[in-house]
Write a structure and sequence with these properties.
The chain has 238 residues and is an alpha+beta fold. The chain contains one helix and 18 strands. The chain starts with a helix and ends with a strand.
Length: 238
């Protein structure tokens, strides 16, 4: 009987010892759980609701039309600027975009190399524009642009089909040896075509519109930039 009581007492002592041994571990687990629970809303709230990222966050680009990642909620259209004052035309909203020239001297940009700031604004389905850049916080990103030596120019599209009497728009782009886009000075671009086969308007600038003649057939247009030249084909149909 005495031995049995001693065994019971020994078991109680071991139980108390084990409880004290694991109590700090239990408290640590509970504490970590509570801290994680309280920090989640703070992490979610810290994420930007609207942002623009250039070239996947790179600090330097050699292309004057870098890849832009633009995130916003409920936007239908977007526009870009180099100074937050002069803006590009509205275009349909897209998460990724790579057709805004950051160094051609248009839309608030400056020609050549240097630190470039790209601003973005949005329009919703009700016509509301945000931010308005007078009271709201601006949405922008900054990158260093290293302008490369111009190697070639190209007309886009290189071919087009248009009905007689209708029109199509062409744009000329410049590239370095590795196909990074290089900005062109619009007053140095001269457009031309075969005589008496449609018309071009304007004959200088980054873009031109070709108005097709009434007679169908293959027509050629060209763009010259100093010693560089390129061409495009227009198929006029009835």
């Amino acid at each position: 009987m005495i031995n049995f009581k001693k065994k019971i007492l020994l078991i109680k002592k071991k139980t108390i010892f084990i409880s004290f041994l694991f109590l700090p571990i239990i408290l640590i687990i509970v504490s970590c759980t509570e801290n994680t629970h309280h920090s989640l809303p703070e992490i979610v709230d810290s994420l930007p609701k609207r942002h623009i990222v250039i070239e996947n966050g790179s600090s330097i680009t050699k292309s004057c039309t870098p890849l832009l990642e633009v995130f916003v909620e409920n936007a239908v259209y977007m526009a870009f600027s180099g100074n937050g004052i002069s803006w590009s035309s509205w275009i349909p909203y897209s998460l990724f975009y790579n057709d805004f020239n950051i160094a051609d001297g248009t839309c608030g940009t400056t020609m050549g190399s240097g630190i470039k700031t790209i601003y973005v604004r949005f329009m919703d389905k009700f016509g509301g524009i945000y931010p308005d850049y007078t009271a709201d916080e601006a949405i922008f990103s900054i990158i260093k642009y290293e302008m490369q030596e111009l190697f070639s120019i190209k007309i886009e599209p290189v071919e087009a089909t248009v009905k007689a009497g209708e029109h199509v728009t062409f744009k000329v782009r410049g590239f370095d040896l590795y196909l990074n886009e290089v900005p062109l000075s619009e007053n140095k671009i001269i457009w031309s075509k075969t005589c008496l086969v449609g018309s071009l308007n304007p004959v200088t600038g980054l873009e031109t519109t070709y108005i097709a003649p009434d007679i169908p057939g293959l027509r050629n247009i060209s763009a010259n930039y100093g010693k560089l030249s390129t061409g495009a084909k227009v198929y006029v149909i009835r």
